[in-house]
Amino acid sequence: MRVNSAAHVRIGWLAGRFVSAATVVWLAATFTFLVQCLMPGDRAQIIINMASGNVGEASPAELAAVNAKYGFDQPLVLQYGKYIWGILHGDLGLSYQQHRPVLDIIAEQIGPTIILAVAALIAAWVIAVLTTVLVAGQDNMWSTLLSGIQVFLATVPPYWLATILLVVFAVQLRIVPVIGGNSPIGLVLPTIALALELSGFLGQIVRSEFTRVLEQPFVISARARGMGELGVRFRHVLRHAALPGITLSGWAIGKLLSGAILIEAVFARQGLGGVLVAATSSRDVPVVSGAILISAGLFTVTNMLVDLTYRFVDPRIKMT
Amino acid sequence: MRGVSFSLQAGRCLAIVGGSGSGKSVTSRAIVGLAGRRAHVHARQLTFAGTDLTALDDRSWRRVRGKEIGFVLQDALVALDPLRPVGKEIGEALRLHRAVASSEELERRVVALLELVGVPEAAVKARQLPHQLSGGQRQRAVIAAALALDPRILIADEPTTALDVTVQAQVLGLLEETKLRGKALLLISHDLAVVSRIADEVLVMHEGKVVEHGSADQVFQDPQHTYTRQLLDAVPSARPRGSRRSLLPAARPARPPLRSQEQSPSTFPSVVLSAAHLVKRFKGPDGVLRTAVDGISFELRSGETLGVVGESGSGKSTMARLALALDPPDEGAVLFQGRAWTTLTERDRRARRRAISVIYQDPLSSFDPRWSVGHIISDSLASDVESRDERYERVVELLDLVGLSPALLDRRPLELSGGQRQRVAIARAIAPRPAVIVCDEPVSALDVLIQAQVLDLLTDLKAHLNMSYVFISHDLGVIRQLSDRVMVMRQGRVVETGTRDEIFLNPRTDYTQRLLAAVPSLARGGVANRSFSRV
Predict the structure, then answer these.
(1) Is B129 in contact with A315 (Cβ distance < 8 A)?
(2) Are B462 and B251 in contact (CB under 8 A)?
């Protein structure tokens, strides 16, 4: 009976989260639709300019043809309905520039970006946890030094760091290739460049919580049971100290995705970055809108994952 | 602390007593080498069963901790890792010292340990998190963890401080049993009544030094040091009301009483606060409605102290929140000064809010940590005090009234001692000249000496300022000392109401009798002629 009701609670929680995630994506879709309609300039004119490559007034007949093709002559409500209907069926519209489905364009490029963002998140956690567990709570030079480095990393712009890393490790020392493509070795520098800033943030947060928890009575209890320093740090304190970091990770994924775009530009990596830069500068609105939608979707999914992780680490949290 | 010497013997209990800050806890931690990173421990001799502990390196220390010396920390809620199941914590010592061969054996041993300390449904509880256990079960679990490897010494630091009397009695019984099984027990406590029940030998500490050391009988019956006598006198008991427990002089206002006399109680009907059939329900985490307060009625007369006593979860604090109109009752109503109170809108209540104050158990969390003492008190002054100088004068006057020096005006709450904080909370509560103060466990977090001072202060202030108290406590001694009438609560209902003497000398219900029987008292042998009761 108890198990049953717990399962019900869990399903209810998941259902609630799905509804709110869907709401976020729907709001993002509505926003991008309005942007497309209300942007200054006639969309048909933009499409014709893009196709012909020159700027000039198109004839009414040309405009009418484009309007009819893209359905711009229909009432807004109908256009909105079609747009949402399309999204529900995986149709994000056609790129003005490439005349291909937006979904295909994004799908081709998003893989490397996600890999880079996830690799950076993992790297940031590893760096933050290792340095914290080894150094936190000790009144010595290393602890002060680490804190200083973390503040430095958290404030330095990642693209600047990326350039420095590129020059030092790829150009001077030739440890890694300058252009690594999609190979694992090529992932090393971009990941580090993207991860260091976040590791500074995470490290600061985890470290202050870690220092606080180290003084807690249950830690003294564990020591009084004969537990060694490393055992205390890994088995008891880290779990508590990780909690605020986990909360931060949901936000961090959003930040990493946008940060990845810059890093991709610096390292000339394949990814969503190049597509987005090109689409934005040429006002290829459907591609930009599609990227926003996909990011919103990714963001809600990762936040659900973060919440699930939090509940796993802190079982006191009820599924409500 | 300095110059502390003692020895522990198997099957005997040595108790270290003293007020907060006397160095008791540091002493106990120094014995297991955990006095803290910033502590410097020098011991001429620290031996355990012939081994010199001062010479141990970190690795050897770990073999002694847990295995030879078990350590029970105060406040089990924080002494257990809140994120791990209780069973994991208990099994940790077994695992660390490789005392078990398999995980099945570990599980079996953990359940057996929980059963040993009397936790019901041990197998289920082992898989639960600390917050899912009751306070008594948690404290038992901490003791089980300390006993896991059958250590020869058990150190218990304030093991019953946060517990209700009935649970406290059970935990003390458990510790006594441990002693009878041949363990050496080192008990750290500020509560002499607790100590008197199981200690064979007592060490009194004051400001880091041992001021008295002797057998329990000797220390309790013929205390040599004035500090020991102060401690003994401070224990709340059945002595006549009005007798002071602290050695501080009575708080005496430098000016005429703050509360203006023309607003004499006769202009009100003599009942200042009355509640009729209060019911309050809360929805639990499982979605089931739980009745926290179930049909409570009471009357508080002008100038009276109504003591409300009950175990945790009996609905005392919920009742206080209803009386203060912080939560609306689901049924019933409270009348304040003869007029509607809980049925009004907050807007209509606001003008009369100042006539009813509250003092909480933990003043620290009721202060804005960034505000100075002066700011905190000035903030709740009656709004008719307008000029800066006048406000300043009133704040200084209030500080004087609660026995604090004006030098504390610029301190922040964190820079005050526990007793000073509660005094500031009292000054804040009396600042708007209230007719009623609801005191929710106001002395439970204080050690026995400070507690006695604060209780004396509350008694004096009531007389000077013509107030009434609703005084909530789980401590029967405190209730007995302060109350005119007493209301005993259990599971949201009133079990018994009566005058103080009716309740304490002639309890009518089984429940009240059981509560009174569970109270540890100093009554042993010749102590009785010190006029301590045998409640």
Answers:
(1) yes
(2) no
